Amino acid sequence: MISMFIYPPPPQPFTRQSLELAFLYLRQVNGPGTGISRIEGLSESEKNLGQSWGFPTRLALTEYLYDQRKLASLSGDPYRAKRAEIHHLIKNYPVLFRPYRKKDLQTCGDLYELWKNQRLPAFKGEMGERMLMSSQKAHFRALREGENWGLKAWVVLLGNRLAAYTVGAPLDDNTFGVYLEVADLTVKGLSAYIFHNLCRQMEAYPFINTGDAEGLPRLAESKEHWHPVQKLGVFAVDPRE
Fold this sequence. Notes:
Blueprint: H1 16-30, E1 39-42, H2 44-52, E2 57-67, H3 68-73, H4 80-92, E3 95-99, H5 105-119, H6 127-134, H7 136-145, E4 152-158, E5 161-170, E6 175-183, H8 190-200, E7 207-212, H9 217-224, E8 230-237
Parallel strand pairs: 6-7
Antiparallel strand pairs: 1-8, 2-7, 2-8, 3-4, 4-5, 5-6
Helix pairs in contact: 5-7
C-alpha cells in the first residue's frame, strides 16, 4: 500500500474559484470524506475571505515574529541572559560564523545525528520524537538543494569543528524566515550565537519569523526567551460540506 501526502499552499491568486478548483483536485487525489483534505498556510485576511465564501476555517499554528534590530543588537535587560551565553561561548572557543559550503554537507549530516540523539531523551514518546526521526531527510535536501530553492544557509565552526548550522529564506520584502537550526547542545551559548549572528545579516528585513513551536512546550519557551513582538496566526481551510 502506498500512502501519499500533499501539502498544498493557498492557491494564487486567492479567489473563490481557485479555492474551489484546489479542493476539487484534492478530492480527486484523496477521495471524498470529512477531514481528509485541507489547505494550510492562510493569512488572517485569506481566512476571512474563505469564511465569507462559506468555507470552514480554523487556526492551524502560531508563528513567532521578532524585531530584527533588537535581535541584532541584543541591547537592554531583556537580552542580558542571551548576551551572557554568547560571551561565554566567545570566551571559551575560537568561533567562526560563515556561509554554508557544499563540502559541509556530510559534516552537517553527522551533526544532525549528534543533535538528534541529544534531543531524543527529552522527547521520548512525544510528538517531538517522531518529528526528529522524520525530519532528517528534509534537512539533507535543504542543505543539498536549497540554493536552487532560494534558501540561504550558514554554519558555525568552533576551531576546525563544524558545530552548528541554520537555514532560512526571505518570506517577503519585510520578513526573513528561519527554517532550520541545529547546534551541539553540549556547547553553552552556541544556539544563541548562531541565531544572533544570522539576525545580524538581515538588515534588509525589519522582521525575523522563526515559525511555529510545533506544539512542543520546550520549543515555545525557547522562542519566548527571544521576546517576539507579535505572534501571527496561520490558518487552515476545509472544503465545504
